[in-house]
Model the fold of this input.
Amino acid sequence: MHKNPANAPASAASHASGPSGSSGAAGSPAGSAAAAPKPVAERGRTALAVGVVEKIAGMAAREVSGIHALGSGLARTFGAMRDRVPGGKSSVGRGIKAEVGEKQTAIDIALVVEYGVVIPELARQVRENIIDAVERMTGLEVVEVNIAVNDVHLPDEPEFEEEEEQVVPSGQRPKLK
Done:
């Protein structure tokens, strides 16, 4: 008791209420608050990488029909080349840029729509789907989703992959059509 004088008054107060037969309502909460463990949410931090939010947003945007592709023309070109490199991974978050804070995120998305789609309605659906998915999966508040429609894909336009030349291993001739 002499080693820790700060606890002496508290222990004296608990001894004083103990013999009287009362539960010591005034002493009880103070003792239990110090002994109770912190809630799980307060026992550390969860940090989300920007790429996590971008991938979730990209998958959510792709679920909406009427989107032909994500990204600007340049991003799609580099992404298609990266996809063809052996060992390369396709980027689900292509065309998505996110700013991630501790509690909030803001997302920018660039996309190409199919011809005939009502763009304001498509933008509303994309925005709603992204907000729902990101908030549900990450717990972050999505403060804004900015959508840039960079192109309209026409039905008679060839796919990007068809426009590229075939990659032929060295020493072989390309097949003629």
Q: What stands out?
A: Residues 1-25, 161-168 have pLDDT under 50 and may be disordered. The helical segments are 8-17, 27-35, 50-62, 73-84, 119-138, 160-163. The radius of gyration is 30 Å. Residues 115 and 154 are 5 Å apart (CA to CA).
